[in-house]
């Protein structure tokens, strides 16, 4: 299964939270033993001082783990030459619809 995403990137998990960009990319289920996805995603910022900049994340997302770590492999604009990692934590998940709210904490070094 491959899923393409173009989701709101917000300051917080609430529906009323300010949108600061889009989380765009794809994930593919890539494990026969557990729910594990291969993620390729850009955080494309559209607001504030990071407007027009991106952070690129590529890595394995072990969905059932409380905290998942994935590498930051680059970026653009203010995040040119970015390196680091993100920690993903599921805030809410609806088993009926498959919709989830995920918190990403980014630790990034850049020029």
From TrEMBL:
InterPro entries: Allene_oxi_cyc_Dirigent (IPR044859), Dirigent (IPR004265). Keywords: Apoplast, Secreted. GO terms for biological process: phenylpropanoid biosynthetic process. It comes from the Eukaryota. GO terms for cellular component: apoplast. Gene3D superfamilies: Allene oxide cyclase-like. It is found in: Secreted, Extracellular space, Apoplast. Pfam families: Dirigent. Dirigent proteins impart stereoselectivity on the phenoxy radical-coupling reaction, yielding optically active lignans from two molecules of coniferyl alcohol in the biosynthesis of lignans, flavonolignans, and alkaloids and thus plays a central role in plant secondary metabolism. Homodimer. Belongs to the plant dirigent protein family. This is Dirigent protein.
């Amino acid at each position: 299964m491959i899923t393409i995403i173009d989701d709101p990137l917000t300051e917080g998990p609430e529906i009323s939270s300010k949108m600061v960009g889009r989380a765009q990319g794809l994930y593919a289920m890539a494990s026969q033993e557990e729910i594990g996805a291969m993620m390729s995603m850009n955080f494309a910022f559209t607001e504030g001082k990071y407007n027009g900049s991106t952070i690129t994340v590529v890595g394995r997302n072990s969905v059932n783990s409380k905290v998942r770590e994935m590498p930051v492999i680059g970026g653009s604009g203010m995040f040119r030459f970015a390196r680091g990692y993100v920690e993903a934590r599921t805030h809410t998940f609806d088993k009926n619809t498959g919709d989830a709210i995920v918190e990403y904490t980014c630790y990034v070094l850049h020029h």
